[in-house]
Amino acid sequence: MKRKILVAITTFVLALACSFTTYAAGWVKDDIGWYYAYSDNSYAKSGIRNIDGVDYCFNDAGYMVTGWQYTNYNSYGWYYFQPDGSKKTGWLNENNKWYYLDPANGGKMHTHWLDIGSKRYYMREDGSMVTGKFELGSDFLDNKLSYYADPSTGELYKNKKTTETKSNGEVVDIRYDDTGVIRYRTAKTIAKAKETGDKDDEWVTSLSKYELDSKKERAKEDEEANTNDE
């Protein structure tokens, strides 16, 4: 009798032990790709998962994915995963275009204005960095605002001055203000500022009005010259 009881207890204990079987956690590779198995025999899947302090991304089937992935971390957006599967943060150069994967936002691709320390950049809707001269927004007079980003680094020109001489000999002073907006000054704008008594009229965001005035003046001079010839 005692023997039967002992056998029954042993069988129960073994069955109980089997019900709590644990598995070795780790990376596994099959014919499809890499996946990560947890010790409870479940798998990492459907989004970004942190494994041993590193972020990886998995599809709904549980396989690790790389490259650009639109997924949710701190918020939905584009994230980039390197060939080894780890999430990339900071600057990324791909196909000769620069992107910024913001570490402060979980590595999410940054768009629009980007300030890093004292440096400023502008990132397009697709995340790529703008270089050279570009227009964005307008002032209260509906003049389009122009900016210039260094062709090599993408850093916005700020607090700089330069001079340009046009083909007609007109000298144009160019200033990049503390926000990067390009402003122009010519003999005409200086005269306008003296006329109005408003110092702000000296530096303008667009010379189109003054160029138009110059064309009108030249047309008037030509008309007067033709009249005199007659």
UniProtKB/TrEMBL annotation:
<dbReference type="InterPro" id="IPR018337">
    <property type="entry name" value="Cell_wall/Cho-bd_repeat"/>
</dbReference>
<dbReference type="Pfam" id="PF19127">
    <property type="entry name" value="Choline_bind_3"/>
</dbReference>
<protein>
    <submittedName>
        <fullName>Uncharacterized protein</fullName>
    </submittedName>
</protein>
